[in-house]
From TrEMBL:
InterPro entries: Cof, HAD-like_sf, HAD-SF_hydro_IIB, HAD_sf. PROSITE patterns: COF_2. It holds the Pfam family Hydrolase_3. This is HAD family hydrolase.
Length: 275
């Protein structure tokens, strides 16, 4: 096995329940980098909200952000490739979201913005209490988020619709698929519908990095936990799902590693990838 590139989802994969990088995972990543492996972040997060713990790992060069909408060279903060959403698709999403009691998040040039009322009280919009700190520390609050989105409609990386439950999620998801063109729809957690350009997706980002580094598909591996990681795991030569991953994510994986709170990334790197 000759793995030269590992793509890592962050939340509930590389990071523990406290949103931190454990010593075990840190040491495994450093060891892989010392052995010539490219470590690539692959996250739904925007570039400006990537955690310091991961960015501080010496040698991590690339980040697939906003579910593949933008790919960055980390040391220089240079965007290497991006897919901006089309104005028509953005307006379509707005019209559907307005028909339901939802909140919107929007990612623009690596920054995350969200409805102010949602940022102030995420739980009232269906978010778990555990996510409050993350949302309030990473989102720039906007009073009139729809007007803000329209003002920046030519510069949008991706959008999220925050839903109150599974029934509303499926209803809006189906409306988006039926009515909106040129979009890629996915979801990392139950309360989010995550939308980007049709050619985006973490898998698209990994494909770009692979070609950028002149690597073969079988020289790549990926770790993930959510439904938004399914295509990523399928794109990689070896896909590794966490013990805590969604059923569909596990179905897409080559291996199942330990829980994200038990250094599952480190275990996968040493036991499955033999690095």
């Amino acid at each position: 096995m000759n793995i030269k590139c590992i793509a890592l989802d962050l939340d509930r994969t590389t990071l523990n329940a406290s949103g931190r990088l454990s010593d075990g995972n840190y040491n495994a990543l450093c060891h892989a980098i010392e052995n010539g492996v490219h470590i690539v972040i692959a996250s739904g997060r925007s570039f400006d909200t990537l955690p310091k713990d991961v960015l501080a790992v010496p040698g991590i060069e690339y980040a697939i952000t906003s579910n593949g909408a933008a790919i960055y060279h980390i040391p220089t903060s240079t965007c290497l490739h991006e897919y901006k959403m089309t104005p028509a698709s953005v307006e379509c999403i707005i019209q559907i979201a307005k028909q339901h009691e939802t909140a919107l998040e929007v990612f623009i040039d690596g920054k995350a913005y969200a409805l102010k009322a949602y940022v102030e009280d995420p739980v009232s919009y269906g978010t778990t209490p555990q996510a409050i700190s993350y949302i309030q520390s990473t989102r720039i609050p906007i009073d009139d988020i729809i007007s803000f989105i329209r003002e920046h409609i030519d510069h949008i990386d991706s959008m999220d619709i925050v839903v109150s439950g599974e029934q509303q999620k499926q209803l809006i998801w189906n409306e988006l698929k039926y009515n909106c063109d040129e979009i890629y729809i996915t979801s990392s957690v139950s309360q989010l519908i995550e939308i980007s350009h049709k050619d985006a997706g973490k898998h698209s980002g990994l494909r770009f990095i692979r070609e950028y580094l002149n690597l073969k598909p079988e020289e790549t591996a990926a770790f993930g936990d959510g439904d938004n990681d399914i295509d990523l795991l399928k794109e990689a030569g070896i896909g590794i799902a966490m013990e805590n991953a969604s059923p569909k994510c596990k179905d897409a994986a080559t291996f199942i590693t330990k829980h994200h709170d038990k250094d599952g990334v480190a275990y996968g790197i040493t036991e499955f990838l033999k690095i």
